[in-house]
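Researcher: We're reviewing a set of sequences before deciding which ones to prioritize for further study. For each one, I'd like a predicted 3D structure that I can look through quickly. This is Myo-inositol-1(Or 4)-monophosphatase. If possible, include the structure in token form so it fits the rest of the review sheet.
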Amino acid sequence: MTNNLYTDELRFAQDVARKAGAIMLRHFRTGIGHERKADGTPVTKVDRNVNQFMPMEVKRQRPGEGMLGEEDARHAWGAQQANAVPRRWVCDPIDGTWLYAAGVPNNISSMALLEHRQPVLGVLYDPYTNSMVHAVVDGGAFLNGKPIRVNTSDSISGSCLTLPGGRVDTLDAGALFKEVVDQGADVVTFGSVIYDASLVALGFASAHVYPYTSPWDMAAIKVIVEEAGGRITDLNGNDQPYDRPINGAIVTNGSIHEKIVKLVRGHIRK
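Model: Here's the predicted structure for Myo-inositol-1(Or 4)-monophosphatase, in token form for your review sheet.
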């Protein structure tokens, strides 16, 4: 049962995520292009529209609480600022921007609530299937109101893993891919890291490796996967805050976590 301490916050996050999804759908396959941000990653006009909508809703409905979004990272970094607000909403309006711009319907809108740098609530919304995944700390994880659990696989062999498919500077992803395949794993990637990681919470995948630094990609995933019975750490197997750049993430069903951490450590670029 969902933790009643966060009933209002959950209702707010789900409502904002659904409305963000509606904006996403309204512009989907309308010929909208994309441009590159300073770090080389793509951003569309819809990203910015949704990311303007999300903080506006936080300011209007949750005054006094902070906001951190992918297209608004200038508000994020710096310990002094991070400590100034004990509660902070973290969002990714459209995960999988390349897919969205190409007209491929595999994008997630996510939102998480941080308290003292740790996620306590997370929602993921897929507007194409009207699917809502949510979790609240100590309250379980759910897909459209039905409980979800990670799988129980304790072996890399025979497990499905989701690995990064793009350029990776921090990790030798090619060598990692080869090693897990050699150990008998099935490896997939769908272009949306949030979608890929959510497959662990849903029980379809046993692990996801996220070698990037963006907290908005993993904040909602953290509470959702943990409430589904899984585990998430940084690339070295340590806990970390989510109000600043993260040291990647290893997301697993818990049973194979240490095995994946050991594999990843062997392929981190020095």
